Amino acid sequence: MKNITEKQFLEQYSSEQYKKPSVAVDLVLFTIDGDELKCALIKRSEHPFKNMLSLPGVFVGINESLDDAVRRGIKTKAGLKDIYFEQLYTWGEVDRDPRMRIISVSYLALVPIEKLETTAALYPYEEIQKAELAFDHKKIVEYARERIKNKANYSDIAFKFLPEEFTLPQLQKIYEILLDKPLYKANFRKKIEPYIEDTGKMTSGNAHRPSKLYKRNEAII
Amino acid sequence: MKNITEKQFLEQYSSEQYKKPSVAVDLVLFTIDGDELKCALIKRSEHPFKNMLSLPGVFVGINESLDDAVRRGIKTKAGLKDIYFEQLYTWGEVDRDPRMRIISVSYLALVPIEKLETTAALYPYEEIQKAELAFDHKKIVEYARERIKNKANYSDIAFKFLPEEFTLPQLQKIYEILLDKPLYKANFRKKIEPYIEDTGKMTSGNAHRPSKLYKRNEAII
DNA sequence: ACAATAGTGTCTGTGAGACAGTATCGA
DNA sequence: TCGATACTGTCTCACAGACACTATTGT
């Protein structure tokens, strides 16, 4: 950039001789199924890493924001819309994809299992940890796992795995899975109390004592 | 992507008709100067946003990792090497740069003021907040400010603003600036005690009671 | 009545917060 | 001796952790 204006530089930079990396968004879509945290993965049908599992992802269009690309990915790969997502980390090692230079902006997406009537193939996190994934995708999934473990302590992400109305035993179960440790009922209830609101409704038909249905108290962060 | 193989798609995608975004890294380089948190900014000499302040940044080379681009940026823009940095967030709105589509991977960099004998122009954060910055850079600086405020509570980033050896009044000052609130001496010392190590040395010549010199206890996270 | 799950009362220890005190330097 | 800064002892209160208890359903 010596002796040329920024404008000249940009013209040169935009020209053919300056190769640009491609940019993709990769999705780590988690849900909780019974006692397990599960992640949506796609079996690759082409080389490289043929027949291996990989994260669903899309390339970012030239007139598409990152968040829009994520929404498109969630829609086309999992058939979902209006679910919670947040940016995780951007992975930019030169050789992370053997075909070409691809910078991957990874996103965490969370969805209640009830919304996932669709075809997305889910794999338990515990199995993923033991398996090999395509590209650097295993590292990305593990990064996402750490993130939800941390955020469970100080944010409301646990609620993203549940429908609008839920019981406290359900919510506690989510927390136990995310934090990977058992919690004391009484303590959990005292701690969570400010963040929830009684709906007045109860569960029924569960062969045992019914439980109250709560919803998130949106007024409290 | 209907009816074509992934290979064919990639060939098409790589061809000229598929325009790619550019990727840059933008640096939020903070230091603490006296009682103030300051950020390195550059006055733009070209349109758009001519004469306005902006974050130092570089385009990511096709054969350069993101971290390498950051190191190059820190070297060329601030004349520094081997300083602490971490990725912040990736900004991908379509119109964030009026000239062309640029996706910006922002990085936080922290440096002790003693290392900054150089020319980098520093601006107090409080002033930046009141000013206007080029592009979406003000939002990025504010995001970085929030990050260090949060991380001061549970990580060791405060130490990144100090040289190897430091006094507890110095360290407390850093924390007070980062957290933007006064701290009680006694409580601060009790809390920080496990993370520091006495060097046996003392300050001197300061016209008052000298203070002990400590260093980071690397064994403790 | 019983099994099973839902929900509550209370003790304890830890640690943050607040404040008052003592210690050691230069001038 | 005094001003200024460095450093310490201790009380209180909130809250996480642990555990034992009571409550309500279907069978």
What number is the mean pLDDT of chain A? 92
Shape of chain A: elongated
Contiguous helical run count of chain A: 6
How helical, in percent, are the residues of chain A?
25-40%
Coarse structural class of chain A: alpha+beta
Biggest beta sheet attributes of chain A: 6 strands, mixed
Rg of chain A, Å, rounded: 21 Å
Oligomer: homodimer
> Which protein chains are joined by the largest interface, and how many residues does each one contribute?
A-B, 36 and 37 residues
Write up what this structure looks like.
Two copies of one chain form a homodimer. The longest helix of chain A is centred in the middle third of the chain and has 16 residues, at 137-152. Chain A has helices at 6-14, 66-78, 125-130, 137-152, 168-179, 185-192, and strands at residues 22-33, 36-40, 42-43, 53-54, 57-59, 84-91, 102-110, 122-124, 165-166, 196-202, 212-216. Chain A is elongated, with a radius of gyration of 21 Å. In chain A, strand 1 and strand 2 (36-40) form a beta hairpin. Helices cover 29% and strands 26% of the residues of chain A. The mean pLDDT of chain A is 92. Chain A contains six helices and eleven strands. With 221 residues, the first copy, chain A, is α+β, with helices and mostly antiparallel strands. Chains A and B meet through helix 1, helix 2 and strand 6 of A and helix 1, helix 2 and strand 6 of B. The first copy, chain A, binds a DNA duplex (27 and 27 nucleotides) through residues 167-169, 184-187, 189-191, 204-212.
